[in-house]
Inverse folding.
């Protein structure tokens, strides 16, 4: 009996590590795949993959909830006393049996947790690797607004096109935001693109996103920064490339 129990524990114990090994390979394949996509100028869409991961996380939570609900209902129905004077007695478990009851379910659920965690790290890696063919926009956060400037659209005097609380970008181009705060901590959050990054005084941070279709997207500050924090909003306007180029040229001519 003890020998069989140790065999079961040893088998169960390998589940999380097999999951990590398998997903390490998936992680590397994801990195290689994204490098190839970047080389072919086909941009990944991290926002869509974050939605997939969130769906898998919800399915995981539902599955765990259903399993434990079934066990709880079974225990209530089976072990409810039949008479007022009935007194139950606990099952005597050996130390190894006690460990098995705790370890085997934990190992099984940890395997799925490792799976989701590894996939999350792979997506985070995608989000931090900026595609080579990107457009850079500089962003200064301040109480209580967002000041965007285009370093690729400057005149001879060094004045660049700027926009306050409005970021216009071309569709199909990776947009790199290089950010800093002029006063306190802010956090630039674009819910539609599933990206958020803090802005700090004295430190430059960055994030990138991929506008795949024309449209408008809301920007909010996701870190409390003072009395007007809730009003620190902006719009991202994704435009067809030709329209964006025309707008940028017109703004540059007005400098």
């Amino acid at each position: 009996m003890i020998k069989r129990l140790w065999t079961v524990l040893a088998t169960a114990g390998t589940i999380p590590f097999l999951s990590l090994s398998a997903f390490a390979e998936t992680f590397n394949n994801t990195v290689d795949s994204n490098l190839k996509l970047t080389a072919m100028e086909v941009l990944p869409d991290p926002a869509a993959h974050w939605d997939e991961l969130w769906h898998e996380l919800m399915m995981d939570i539902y599955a765990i909830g259903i399993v434990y609900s079934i066990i709880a209902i079974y225990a209530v129905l089976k072990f409810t006393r039949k008479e007022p004077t009935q007194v139950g007695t606990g099952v005597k478990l050996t130390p190894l049996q006690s460990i098995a009851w705790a370890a085997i379910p934990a190992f099984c659920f940890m395997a799925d947790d490792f799976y989701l965690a590894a996939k999350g790290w792979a997506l985070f890696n995608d989000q931090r690797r900026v595609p080579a063919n990107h457009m850079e926009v500089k962003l200064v956060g301040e109480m209580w607004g967002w000041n965007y400037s285009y370093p690729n659209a400057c005149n001879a005097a060094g004045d660049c096109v700027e926009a306050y609380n409005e970021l216009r970008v071309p569709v199909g181009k990776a947009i790199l935001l290089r950010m800093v705060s002029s006063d306190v901590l802010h956090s630039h959050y674009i819910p539609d693109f599933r990206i958020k990054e803090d802005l700090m005084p004295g430190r430059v941070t960055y994030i990138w996103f991929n506008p795949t279709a024309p449209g408008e997207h809301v920007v909010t500050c996701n870190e409390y920064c003072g009395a007007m924090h809730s009003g620190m909003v902006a719009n991202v306007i994704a435009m067809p490339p030709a329209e964006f180029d025309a707008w940028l040229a017109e703004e540059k001519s007005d400098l």
In short: The CA atoms of residues 176 and 223 lie 21 Å apart. The chain has a mean pLDDT of 82. The two ends are 84 Å apart (CA to CA). The first strand starts at residue 134 and ends at 142.
